[in-house]
Amino acid sequence: MRILKNDFIKYAHDEESADQEEETGWKSIHGDVFRYPKHKSLFAAALGCGTQLFTITIFIFILAVVGVFYPYNRGALLTALVVIYALTSGIAGYTAASFYCQLEGTNWVGNLLLTGSLLCGPLFVTFCFLNTVAVAYKFTAALPFGTIVVIFLIWAQVSSPFLVLGGIAGKDSKAEFQAPCRTTKCPRDIPPLPWYQKTLPQMAMAGLLPFSAIYIEIYYLFASVWGHRIYTTYVILFIVFIILLIITAVITVALTYFQLAAEDHGWWWRYVVFGS
């Protein structure tokens, strides 16, 4: 906030100066900052899946705090995840289609297909591989074929219709995007950036502080998954989750501001990867 305040003071002083020839910093890219991102269908799909994941996490925390999950019923959590994922697919479809249409996208059906497979596709491939290994080694944790069929039916009969209905609602209720300033026809050249302001170093920087804030709870969670401990302190975990959200939001906004101050107007995808 101190840096932002100093920049406002500097720019206000520059406007009052008659010898100011050219704008610098984030003020110089006001005509490019609202230019639509590349691969906007994938961008909208990622936004929709992220909104759905956040909603699933909140519902899981609510069920955990009220005592639905207890230590010796490990299947309750997985069942809740499958059911809540199916019921919240409409949120992903609505968010993705609404944002995609605001970005003047036309193939909203393809965007819905991408939204439905962006999260579910990698999970399905990983699950099939792990379950095949479990069956090959005759582990008791392997899911039987009947359970897999039930999960597929839930996805086909519940999740997919909700996704389509949410997408239709998002497409029909979209509001036209109104940028506060006019976007130039030709994009401004991005100046060379130092190594620490490039994507990979900033991704590492954006993930370090949030990870350090939840490291202890992650240790106990993994110990519970591996069967060494029983995890029951869901209230503390929820508090840590709130702290994680705050830290992630602050770091994402700060790094995005520094990127704009360096006259790099390609902030859309950076904003997503910083937060994830």
Please, could you describe this protein's structure?
With 276 residues, this protein is mainly alpha-helical. It has two domains: 30-177, no CATH class; 193-276. 68% of the residues lie in helices and 0% in strands. It is built from nine helices and no strands. Helix 2 (40-65) packs across helix 3, helix 4 (89-102) packs antiparallel against helix 5 (108-136) and helix 4 (89-102) packs parallel to helix 6 (145-172). The longest helix has 29 residues, at 108-136. This is Transmembrane 9 superfamily member. Keywords: Endosome, Golgi apparatus, Membrane, Signal, Transmembrane, Transmembrane helix. The chain crosses the membrane at residues 42-70, 76-100, 112-137, 143-165, 203-222, 234-258.
Give the C-alpha Rg. Answer: 23 Å
Average residue pLDDT:
81
The largest pleated sheet is described as: none
Tell me the count of domains.
2
Oligomeric state of the chains?
single chain
**Model regions low in confidence, pLDDT < 50 over at least 5 residues:** 15-21
Tally of DSSP β-strands: 0
**Helix share of residues?**
55-70%
How much strand content do the residues show? under 5%
The number of helices is 9
Detail the topology: elements first, then pairings.
Blueprint lengths: L1 H15 L23 H26 L8 H14 L1 H14 L5 H29 L8 H28 L26 H27 L8 H28 L6 H8 L1
